[in-house]
Amino acid sequence: MAKMLNGEQEVSRRDDEEVERISELYEKRPEAFEKWLRERAPPDAIHKIHAIVTKSPKSPRKGGSVSSDLFQQWLALSPVRRSRTTQNQRAIGSRKHLENLNESELFMELIRDVANELDIDVLCHKILVNVGLLTQADRGSLFLARNTPAGRILVAKLFDVTQDTALEEAMRQAHEEPIVIPFGVGIAGIVAETKEIINIKDAYKDKRFNGEIDLRTGYKTNLILSMPICNYEGDVIGVAEIINKINEEADEFSEKDVEVFRRYLTFCGIGIQNAQLFEISVQEYQRNQILLNLARNIFAEQSNLECLVTKIMQEARELLKCQRCAVFLLDLDCGEANHLERILEKPSQSIQTFSRRQSKVINVEDILEQQKSPIRFTTLFELGAENHVSTVSRPTMEDLQNSTLALIAQMVASTNQILNIEDVREWLKDKTSLFKDDEADNIHTILCMPIVNGAKDVIGVAQLINKNTESSFSELDVSILEAFAIFCGLGIHNTQMYESACKLMAKQKVALECLSYHATASQEQTLKLAQDSIQSAEQYSLYSFKFIDFDLSDDDTCRATVRMFLQCNLVQQFNIPYEVLCRWILSVRKNYRPVKYHNWRHALNVAQTMFAMMKTGKMERFMHDLEILGLLVACLCHDLDHRGTNNAFQTKTESPLAILYSTSTMEHHHFDQCVMILNSEGNNIFQALSPEDYRRVMKTVEAAILSTDLAMYFKKRKSFLDLIESGEFDWQGEEKKELLCGMMMTACDVSAIAKPWEVQHKVAKLVADEFFDQGDLEKLQLNTQPIAMMDRERKDELPKMQVGFIDVICMPLYRVLSETFPWMRPLYEGTMDNRQHWQDLAEKVEMGLTWIDHDTIDKPIEEFAACTEEIKDIEFTVTTLNCVHNEETSPSHERHRRFNSLRKSNVLSRAVRNRLSKSLYCSNSSKKDPIDDTSDTAEDTTPPTKETSKKASGERSKGHKKHSHRCLLL
Q1: What is the pLDDT of residue 399?
Q2: N or C, which terminus of the chain has less Cβ within 10 Å?
Q3: DSSP letters along 908-953, please?
Q4: φ, ψ for residue 61, nearest 5 deg
Q5: Rg of the chain (C-alpha set)
Q6: Number of helices and strands (H, E) in the chain?
Q7: Which residue among the candidates 598, 602, 638, 669 is catalytic per the annotation?
Q8: CA separation for the pair 410, 408 (Å, rounded)
């Protein structure tokens, strides 16, 4: 045990000796020890030293860190009064404790005292008090460096602070008597510029000393020790000065005082820089909060421009601490149509940055020059001091010309430059007559900045006048106002857009009222149609898939449409007032433009095909009455207000319709026109429906009209074919019903391809003419080469393109429809016949034997009949070949063999297929297979079409030879 105790005592003695040697080394070479700590000390050693220092029992308080709680505490308190009195009293009260510390302990304690202080004012005060304790100086001053456009300066943060001076008193004195010293001027300025220590033993014998302050205060300065404060990069961030020793007998600051002062300021430089960074972060946080509050106000106030600008000016005055502010707004033609067009324009990709100009590079002559081409400000908002209310005025051109502030704003708006006038009096010089007497006396500094909108167009100018501190606007103020102006520009622009939109909506309502009056049918037309006798569906051939409208007058087309609604029992089923139905049909006809193909007669043909599908094709058994009503309405309205151009043309020309609808442009417009007519007075054929039925039928109408876009057809066709391939026969699901209706709408829309050859050929010419007109527009307006089907110079390729259209779009759809729903087989057969005709024409075009090489596609047949004998010979030869070709390629038994099942594949068993066919397509009185007899499909189940079908069959047989003779010419 004794040996162990002796061993421990020996170790303790050696440790004490090593500590003494390290202490002696530190006292002899403190610089080397500090350099070792900074450059070579291991991180573990530094961490241990820090832990020992922070846990020292002699420390009056534990070291802290900048936590979020501390940050929020700083934000919650005022920037000047945040418990500084308490801190100052605590520091003064701890001096008795400091008197008992040795020199090293005192030095470390004073370093800890400033290490975690983040208030720059409190920190500077502590530094001066602590330096006084360390050097026994009577008083001290601390200057901080600032960057200005004119150069770097020193600003007195605290001046003549003694150990007993309270912080509030020192701050008040610094604010009341601000001291600014340029670098290189005076003792402090020379120290800041040269980074050298100046130790003066007799101030009045030194030429660099300025005794004016002694004369004003009555205090005599003898000794001065001035030293630079640098950051970790070695840049001067301030200067500290101590004056006179407390011991009046001392005749100088000793070398030890200089060394202690230098060492302490080394740590203080880091503390000051941290405090400055923290102060900047707090300021930025507060500014961000103000900007966020401004953004909330901007988006909360959208309806009143005056209230919005007033809030903006109040926020600006609070943010930048200025006395007055004004906002000049330009005339933006609010409420005019061209303003809406500018709103809809694509924003420019280039980003404009403001150029900043100071008053020293702007001459008054620049302002006077602006008078030659003045900018018109329509509204002026002004806000004075806090007890003043904002004013709004409409200045005249004379008012603007007589106001120098307005002239400055005009120059800023025209040049798109920020103007910062630091001293108005100095800037005006001998041009003081420009300002009125009251303006010249009350205006000292001006900061003027343009306000731009999202398109980088100048919409106004913000003008700030006089900082509260009577100093000029700094670069930081300019940066803040620039960010502020962005929010202002967005807010003003949004409010102006809102006002414009309100005016435009009012104009739109007036226009819609006028359009609804002119676009709806007149009372006379409505009464006439309501009183007309409506012929039967058989007389209009509505049951036939080979319906022809060429012989119908315009009035007959409307009567035929009424008959379709009557025949489907829709008028009685949904209580549609007969006069309302007549007016609606006439209004729909009136809203079709007189284009060559997509006109009212095309809509009639599409609706008739849908009617024939329901009745002759027996599709009505898959549909509810409400869906039949919706589909007929959709067919009649599916091309309302068609302009003769397709969706691609609307997109290429960036038309208003393309801006409104990015996809299915024309189809969305057709539906909107349909809704507009239904909402017009006396045109709502759905007025008796319940809300739920109204929602369902409008959904059906919208989906059906949008499905006429071929892009939608290609998108959904695969899903439809997959259902057919899987043997689907239950079409009552919502998605499957919508898919089926979409395919039926496409089949009706292109059903002209299945009409008799004479009709198909004539309709194809109408379509081609409309396409050629669009191609001409593309050449003229877009200066581009149109595609082949729209290029008039390539009209000879029309037969070949028709064959491609049939193969890609028509045949796949009609084939699957006819195989799934056999009573729609005439559509497929008619398409097959017409394909053969187009194929024959395409082959003859390659041989050069047709009329297509003539100048116009609309050349009448009679002109060719009167041609030379040579052309007649060509006609005779081609006709003979064509007749033989038709007889060889279209045998009836071949067609029967191609439609011998309900499905393309044998997915269903024979028993299921037979039972399904009988239940869906066969009447109770008929026992024969509906597919076996294709010569008169409508006669067995639809008696009204028997006579019409036989008549059409007879005419077709009678005119077969004549048709064969003319097919090649056409």
Answers
A1: 82
A2: N
A3: S-HHHHHHHHHHHH--TT--S-TTT--SSHHHHH-GGGHHHHHHHH
A4: -155, 155
A5: 47
A6: 43, 13
A7: 598
A8: 5
Q: Token match 């009329």: residue?
A: 851
Three-class secondary structure assignment of 399-417: HHHCCHHHHHHHHHHHHCE
How would you label 556-576 residue by residue, b for 16+ Cβ within 10 Å and e otherwise?
A: ebbbbbbbbbbbbebbeebeb
**Structure tokens given for 859:** 């050349």
Q: For 781-797, what is the mean pLDDT? A: 90
Tokens 């809102």 -> residue:
498
Determine contact, residues 943/923, Cβ cutoff 8 Å: no
The whole-number pLDDT of residue 649 equals 92
Sequence-distant (6+) residues with CB within 8 A of 100 are none
User: Taking Cα atoms as reference points, which of 228, 184, 186 lies closest to residue 208?
Assistant: 186
Rounded to 10 degrees, the C-alpha dihedral 595/597/598/601 comes to 100
The larger pLDDT score, comparing residue 68 to residue 155, is at 155
Bridge-based pairing of strands 417-421 and 355-358 is parallel
| 731/150: higher pLDDT | 731
Chain-centroid distance of CA 840 in Å reads: 54
Contact 566, 534 (CB under 8 A): yes
pLDDT of residue 232: 78
Query: Do 120 and 275 meet the contact criterion of CB atoms below 8 Å apart?
Result: yes
If pLDDT is split at 50, 70 and 90, which confidence band does 929 have? very low
What token pair was written down for 542?
A: 């509505």
Instruction: State the CB neighbour count (10 A cutoff) for residue 817.
Output: 24
Cα distance between residue 287 and residue 319, in whole Å: 7
Rounded CA gap, 517 and 683, in Å?
Answer: 11
Q: φ, ψ for residue 357 (rounded to 5)?
A: -130, 140
Only one residue has tokens 């630079």, namely 228
Share of the chain above pLDDT 90, in %: 26
Look at residue 900 in the predicted model and tell me its pLDDT.
35
pLDDT bin (cut points 50, 70, 90) of residue 529 is very high
- Take residue 571 and report the two structure tokens written for it: 């008028």
Task: Give the DSSP H or E segment for 47.
Answer: helix 43-54
**Region 421-429 average pLDDT:** 73
Residues in the chain: 970
Q: What is the pLDDT of residues 499-522, one digit of tens each?
A: 778 777 777 777 666 666 677 888
Banded pLDDT at 756 (limits 50, 70, 90): very high
Residue 598 a catalytic site member: yes
Pair 705, 637: CB distance under 8 Å: yes
CA–CA gap between residue 622 and residue 820 (Å, rounded) = 13
Cβ contact 701:610 at 8 Å: no
Write down the pLDDT at residue 694: 95
How does DSSP assign 523-561, residue by residue? Answer: HHHHHHHHHSPPPPTTTTTTT-TT---TT--HHHHHHHH
pLDDT bucket at 953, cuts 50 / 70 / 90: very low
More confident residue, 633 or 968: 633
Give how far the C-alpha of residue 933 lies from the chain's centroid of Cα atoms, to the nearest Å.
Answer: 62
C-alpha distances in angstroms, 221 versus 160, 218, 251, 472, 905?
A: 11, 10, 12, 33, 114
Report which of 679, 684, 337 is spatially closest to residue 512, judged by C-alpha positions: 679
Amino acid at 196: E
Confidence check: pLDDT of 861 > 70: no
Mean pLDDT of the chain, nearest integer = 75
Give the distance from CA 150 to its chain's centroid. Answer: 43
**DSSP readout, 53-115?**
HHT-TT-SS------HHHHHHHHHS-TTTSSHHHHHHHHHHTHHHHHTS-HHHHHHHHHHHHH
Q: Judge contact between 824 and 932, C-beta under 8 A.
A: no
Q: Which range has the worst mean pLDDT, 206-215, 327-336, 697-706, 928-937?
A: 928-937
Determine the 3-state secondary structure of 886 from DSSP. Answer: helix
